[in-house]
Amino acid sequence: MAILHPLIVGNWKMHGDADFTSELTTSLASWIRDRTEFTGGVVICPPFPWLSMAATHPPLLLGAQDCHAAQEGAYTGDVSAFMLKAAGCQYVILGHSERREYHHEDNALIRAKVSAALDAGLTPILCVGESLNERQSDSTIMVITTQLQECIPAGKAADIIIAYEPLWAIGSGKVPSLQEIDDVHQHIAKWLMQNGVSDAEAITTLYGGSVKPANAAEILGLSSVQGVLVGGASLTEEAFTAIIAAAV
Ligand code: PGA
User: pTM for the complete prediction?
Assistant: First the structure.
């Protein structure tokens, strides 16, 4: 699996209408085409109804924000990984803290979704991260380790992108120190190397949580960080392109 580095991923969450999607994907694709010095990848993850529309804007890559664990079935309101692949997706975000919180997703379910995504030929972007309480009680590494152990199917560590997203940094404007980000990313890399990843160069671990144009360059400057997962700042061309530019 060749993943372009740095990888800049925009998670639109439940934002945007058809016009917004058409305009932003068109302008982002043309902006990226003009930046020959940028050799990484840019993935956008719009809501389900806009995926097909967003799929036709190379070099933009496409991801979904969730999938069901089954290939098909009587699951009203759900979408399978195979459907996402057919709609043009290459990636799917799984285990985002908003899914864990509002849809009560646990590690076992997320692991089943990761398997389904891999079976469909999608690259899962698995989100892990600690709450503020967990950080303050020095449990961060333990929490992340448990999430990695329980969400990654046996033998699949090399096929998954990890996104480290501290819950308290999402949408809050608060960001861990560079040292704190580096510590967790180094731990994730070590865990992956101990669990089946043979080539350190093949690891893609993203940081997510209040990434903005003002902090993107220093976060992306850490050698343990191979990209960023961006929420709010991926919703305007100005902010998102400034983050991509910080990755050059
Ligand atoms: P944020 O969201 O950039 O708005 O903090 C990140 C995320 O939830 O993936």
Answer: 0.98
